[in-house]
Amino acid sequence: MKAAVLGSGAWGTALSHVLSRKVEDVVLYDRDEAYQAINVEHRNPRHYSDVLLSPRITFTNDLSTALSGARVVVFAVPSHAYRQTARALVPFLSAPVHVLSLAKGFDPETNERLSEVLRKEIPEGRRFPIVSLLGPSYAEEVLHGKLTCLSAISQVEEEARLFQELLSSENFRVYTNTDEVGSEIAAALKNVLAIAAGILLGLGEGENARAALITRGNAEIMRFGIANGARMETFLGLSGIGDLMLTCNSMKSRNFSIGYEIGKADDAKIVLEKNKKTVEGVNTAKYVTNLARRMAIEMPIAEAVNDVLFHDARPSEKSLSLMVRELKSERVA
Is 318 assigned a catalytic role? Predict the structure, then answer.
């Protein structure tokens, strides 16, 4: 079997490493020729170069070569590149492929979930049902063989089980889930909460504040998800509270770390102007806030993050405003 992994970043490299345990031919694709070093040294020169990769993993910057004979195609590109990448690969698909999506977010132009983008751009006759791999996971820990549990999510459970079998090992356990809407919403919105959690730390607040933020933030995510057709139990699973706990408590998270910098500066504009990395939670904050308003869904934390990111609100003032809101009974969803 051959698998093509589109995107040679940290997560694409980590997933290639996992796939190589059961797949004989894993090809990493990227337009950047710097990754050619993988073919010589079996190390990714830009992401965790201390890890020796399986000799089953090779690199190419030619998309037709990557896709030729591939039965599995993994999307490991940022969410903003999904549509372009999907359109580019279609001419090279000679037979239906199994598609796995790794990114967490929404399309920045249409606000569609990423599985919806792939379904729309890859004709049904060229692919099997879309599967997303979501849950609490840092690429570095996966590459170093640390215990990790994730969920393979698809509208068709049989397709999710295919990836469950293909990826699972003694240190990488995969569950299945059919709630695509809830899983993708939880995975995307947790990035907004991670920015908020980082801001609190940057402002000098403590663990009490962060625990409260995560709890009340999860209530917001659940309200939003259920209103959009998700199942409540999904938000208590790996792609829900599992991913939320991980992302809101570690500087390894880009969303958490940029939130921390914003909190320290008490200003988002100067931090975002210097940032060169993809931070999915920034655009997600704008999208979810606008949609929540239209749907009359109460999401004060997401609104506060949006105001800080896009309306020059001071983080210190927004954190105070959340604390002095009208007193009320606790509502989970």
Answer: no
Q: 171-204: per-residue pLDDT in tens?
A: 999 999 999 999 999 999 999 999 999 999 999 9
Radius of gyration (C-alpha) of the chain in whole angstroms = 20
Residue 246, CA distances (Å) to 76, 98, 202, 290, 319 in order: 20, 28, 18, 26, 22
Residues 250 and 198 sit within 8 Å (Cβ to Cβ): no
What whole-number distance in Å separates Cα of residue 261 and Cα of residue 67? 40
| Active-site position among 22, 120, 146, 190 | 190
Alpha carbons within 13 angstroms on the beta-carbon side of residue 201 total: 21
Sheet holding 172-177, edge to edge: 57-60, 25-29, 2-6, 72-75, 98-101, 131-134, 148-153, 172-177
The full 3-state SS of 195-259, as one line of letters, equals HHHHHHHHCCCCHHHHHHHHHHHHHHHHHHHHHCCCCHHHHHCHHHHHHHHHHCCCCCCHHHHHH
Asked if 217 and 255 count as a contact pair (C-beta separation under 8 A), the reply is no
Spatial distance between the Cα atoms of 194 and 106, rounded to a whole number of angstroms: 16
Per residue in 298-313, pLDDT tens? 999 999 999 999 999 9
